[in-house]
Amino acid sequence: MPEQNKGRAKKSSEMERIKRELRKLAFGKANDCVKLALCEDVDIASLDLSLLTEIRKSEKGSVEIKLMDRSKVLEQLAGMADQGDERAERFLEALLKGMEDGA
């Protein structure tokens, strides 16, 4: 029984971390992504680039940045809130499995 409680506590902790990261993606600022695209001397390690999905710079100097689709992230958060812990747990399990498969 104590093992089950530890497992639930760990999943709950991981789920809260995932929700926190999803909120950050949904409501975070893209300032650092723009800074990376436009500034010359930038300490990349100090930037929050979690919203950045793609960056391109053409030969002519134009810059294109693509950011995370916030509407999809918001849909995930809304679904987690509406469906409660069951859907959130399935999401967490799929995410963890994907991380294990990719490692």
Keywords:
103 residues; two-stranded antiparallel sheet; 4 helices; 2 strands; elongated
Description:
The protein has one domain. The chain has 103 residues and is mainly alpha-helical. Helix 3 (70-83) packs across helix 4 (85-102). The model has no long low-confidence stretch (mean pLDDT 82). A hairpin with a 5-residue loop joins strand 1 and strand 2. Helix content is 64%, strand content 11%. It has helices spanning 2-27, 31-38, 70-83, 85-102; strands at 52-57, 63-67. Strands 1-2 form a two-stranded antiparallel sheet. The chain is elongated, with a radius of gyration of 18 Å.
Report the biggest beta sheet as strand number plus sense, adding barrel if it closes: 2 strands, antiparallel
Helical stretch tally: 4
pLDDT < 50 stretches = none
User: What is the domain total for the residues?
Assistant: 1
Give the radius of gyration.
18 Å
Overall pLDDT:
82
**Strand segment count:** 2
- Give the fraction of residues assigned to helices: 55-70%
Could you spell the SSE succession in H and E letters?
Answer: HHEEHH
Strand order of the largest sheet: 1-2
